[in-house]
Amino acid sequence: MADEQNGTVFLIALLVTTLVVGVFVLIVKSDYRVEQNVVTNEDYYPNVEVTSETD
Amino acid sequence: MGHFILFTLAYIVGMGLAVVLEIQAAPFFLLLTAFLLVGSFIPLWQRHGQTLIEGHFRQILQEEEAFPVLSVLLLMGAMGCFGVFRYAGALQATGPRHLDRVMENGDPWTKWRVVGEVVAEPTLKNDFLEVKIQPRLVQKVVRSKKPPKGPRGKGKKRSNAGSAPAAVEAPTGGDAPAGGGYALSEDLPEPEREVEDGLVMAFIYQETEAYRQVKFNQTVELTGQFHKASTRRNPGSLDYQRYLRNQGVFRTFRLTAKSGRFTVLAEDPSGAWWYRFALHLRTRFLKVIKQTMPYPESCFLGGVLLGLRGGLPPIVASEFRKTGVSHVLAVSGLHVTIIAGLFYGIFTMFRVPLRVFAPFIVFFLFTFALIVGWPSSAVRAALMNSLFILSRAYLRDYGFRLSIVFSLAVAAVYILTISPLQLTEPSFVLSFMAIYALAMFTDPAEKLMRDTLRGDGLVLAAVASFLFFLAVTLKRDLVIHPWFFTGTGLFIVAVVWASRRLATSSGFQSYSFEMLPGWLKSFTASQVAIFLAMMGPLSAYYFGSMSLAAPLANMIAIPLIGLIVQLGLIAAIVGSFLPVVGLPLALVLNAANWLGVKFFLGMAHFFAVLIPFPRVSQPGLGLILGYYALLHLYFYWETIRDYSLALGAAVIDLWEDPDYRIPLGLVGGGLVAVILFLGGFGLSRLERAPTLRVTQLDVGYGSSLLVEKGGRFALIDAGMRDGLSEYDVGERVIQPALSEKFADRVDLVVLSSALPERISGLLSVAENYQIGRILAPFEIPTGGQLIPFQEFIKRFNFADVKLETDFRKGIIPSMPPNYYLDQAFQAFNGLIRRVHKSGIPVGRLAAGTPLPGFEDTIEVLYPSRAGDRFAVYYDGAILQIREGAHRFVFSSGSMYSLPKVLPERVDVLFLADLPFPLDDFWGLVSSDRVNRVALSFRKPSSWLLEGYYMKKILDGRSIQIDRKIRDQPGRFLQTQSDGAIQVDVVKDRLLVRPFVERKGKPFTP
Question: What pLDDT score was predicted for residue B681?
Fold first, then answer.
């Protein structure tokens, strides 16, 4: 039971930390945007087409 | 469980014997299996016959020794024979409707039309897609003399491969021949034939439209030449035909802008729903990755999460290999376990009982295995994790505890029964051995570390490890010393022994391995176990290399990859299925994950630069089995001893019982007979060691000749490293050959000319092998000072009319005027740099120069003296190699000097290039001075000679030579068609063997 609780705490802590770090990266790195990512990935599996919007 | 593990072991051993001994008599072994099965039932019946008649099976199972030992032994024999039957049977599974049989009545130039279905999602390689196609109809295309009219006739449109839009060829019932075919697009007098088995691997290149069109489940038509993949072309190289056959692929097809035609006939939405669901998930996840992570980090995430290995820059892939972390890209058990852990955690977080969510996890795991392409490693892991979770959910209350080795055995039996040919695939073996290493050696490794890394022992081990890595980092040439690996082995043994002694005797115990947290202790021990029992030996066995950085890099890589995969998966699910906020949330998650990926790539780069990546001699199967035997004896000595003693005592007891004496005698006798038979069979396959072996390697455009004599190796020319395609003959051909031959150094290198296709491959060889001496008929500066292009042209004459005319006028360009000369220039400067850096002794070569170590074997016939300016096409060295009465001559293509120095009779004339002038060559070979000619040549890539005057000359010469050679296949061998050409002198007998078996016109040695 204690192990399960530890695991839950770890998962939640991981997600929160990730969100904070992710936001920080997006603030600092102004070219880290969906549009730019799509452009840089144009030749990566070109048969899977993506747009800069949610499908 | 114990019996099942034993039966699995016997099954695998049986398959292994079928591989090693190349057993083909599958039906015989099936019969033997049946006999042994019946035999195994007799002792069982003797003991439990009455109970079986009464139907009390449970009562039998509850007995302590339910199965008589004899039954178990016979059943193991039956499983072994069944293993032989499955493997040998799978190798010969080619019925009359098998693709291999249908296409066997054509030559490599025959054109075929194939209609089939794309049976798997295409895989991205560097600049092409690999597409697996299951043919349904196959038809030989015979060209009509008059091109048919209409837009689909021969002409420009045909060469525009792949440009045909989708569904150009709609099924037209009227034209379709019997058998339900599609409209014919060529003059096709031969009937269509139905195919049921055997796949085609189509390589669809970037420049074609099909590259963007092809998808899983489409019905497609391919027209063009279909090739059987090449078998092993060089010693130590990959047998590509066998590799493809193990995946069920029997023909390959290339679709480029100039060759082949590809048409999508129909988009078929059918197929297994589960697979389509998995592909749908994969596509959605890939879209999210492309949207939320930039290139090249996206490739890394796509690789570790979805098994999409393509797209990663070659330099990154190479750094992963050097640091021993490539396994993270081959979606393996690690990934499946990480994902199982993630789902387990999420369900537990929401307090869902295990009995409820266990089937969901099993479903997700197998879906994940489908997403990543159903590789044996992922299937194995999905199966094992599922067994573990299901047994924990439903059998825990009955006291059932699943052993890892048992679940590993279940997975092995499942995978090998479905596809027996997987047994020889490195991915299968590495995956299974990784788990075996974890299961068997983690605890003993932890115990060893506890006993060793304590107090003074810990200090000694830490200092010794630090000094070792410091030494190989500062003095990188250390790793190419012939005694490096032996020395390292002895060093490790000595340090372990001394540390253990110090740990027990020292009073200083303040610091110890035991003080680490439990998870860190287990993790460290598991890394040691994996390196000792999987990565170290199997990397050497399969790849001839060993990453020294692997133990350190994996300590960081494995926890990091857990984080990256989990975050990537959460981001992919959120981005794919959560409306409105899904994608922004995935962007935030993957922005954080991007840091992790960057760190991973940086870590791989750091270790790749810091710690050298040496090549090792590829050990044979016997050596590897010996190593594993020693490993087991070391870590399990007491258990093995106790079992052996108990087994011995049981056999003696049985022997003393008159009832068992005869059956036991029969089993013992049978066992001895089988061992003797297998031993004799194996011995009969051993080759007698030659006194001299000369191998003309198949290096494509260029030349390389390997001479072996009395354990010494001489390399005459080293092929080419193409700077544009980054194909390096030194790395891809010569080093694997040296590794397979157990060479720990190259005693002598002779560079016959300064052409890039003869010298540039040496650069990577010299990085990984110690070189005794380099001799060349031109000067190689040793000071390390690179020369400018003008100086290069002053040293070498490339017979380029324009360049030479300008040279005589005193005009020399400061930059290479074309790619070929740039390659030549770079190769020479690379040689200067390498010679200086590694301190390789060099010398000038001329007639009469003694060749150290090969004085009695190799003699220089030409050039007679060293001139000031070296003419690369005319001044190439000519060497004579002799053994007893046999004479071989190695020469460049120039026939101006060869006839003057050629001995009276030559067994094999090795040519490094196309001969010229051709008339002189035909004159020479029509005399009886030359018995056979082995020619190293293949047309170079079109870009290599772009703008260089030799381009057209080579085309003309190669056509003329081909025509002439075709008439005398017994006298001429070519690396282009025959692969490497090996010439052995065995007790004064000459044996000539081309590596690629000739079909139709067998070569008589």
Answer: 75
B367 in Cβ contact with B278 (< 8 Å): yes
Q: In total, how many domains does chain B have?
A: 4
How far away is chain A from the Cα of B291, in angstroms, using its nearest Cα? 5
Same domain, B136 and B16: no
> What whole-number distance in Å separates Cα of residue B570 and Cα of residue A16?
13
Instruction: Tell me if chain B has a CB within 8 Å of the CB of A6.
Output: no
Domain coordinates in residue numbering, chain A = 20-44
Pick from B308, B588, B594: CB nearest A23: B588
Specify the pairing of strand B878-883 against strand B886-891: antiparallel
Q: Return the residue of A nearest to B123 by Cα.
A: A45
Asked if the structure places residue B313 within a domain, the reply is no
- pTM equals 0.82
pLDDT digits (tens, 9 = 90+) for B605-634: 999 999 988 888 888 888 999 999 999 999
Tokens 């039956």 identify what position? B78
* Average pLDDT over every residue of B741-769: 94
Q: Are residues B742 and B670 in the same domain?
A: no
Contact A54 B583 (CB under 8 A): yes
Q: How far is A47 from chain B (nearest CA, A)?
A: 5
Range of the domain at B77: 2-91
Question: pLDDT category, B939, cuts 50, 70, 90?
Answer: confident
Strand partners, B197: B98
Cβ–Cβ contact A4 with B under 8 A: yes
Q: Virtual CA dihedral for B72, B74, B76, B79, nearest 10 degrees?
A: -130
Is residue B427 assigned to a domain?
A: no
* pLDDT (average), residues B442-467: 93
Q: Searching chain A, which residue's CA lies closest to the CA of residue B287?
A: A50
B175 and B213 housed in the same domain: yes
Give the 3-state secondary structure percentages of chain A, helix then strand then coil, rounded to 5.
60, 0, 40
In a domain, residue B15? The reply is yes
pLDDT at B776: 95
pLDDT in tens, B71-94: 888 899 999 999 999 998 888 767
Interface test with A, best of B287, B581, B590 (most A CBs within 10 A): B287
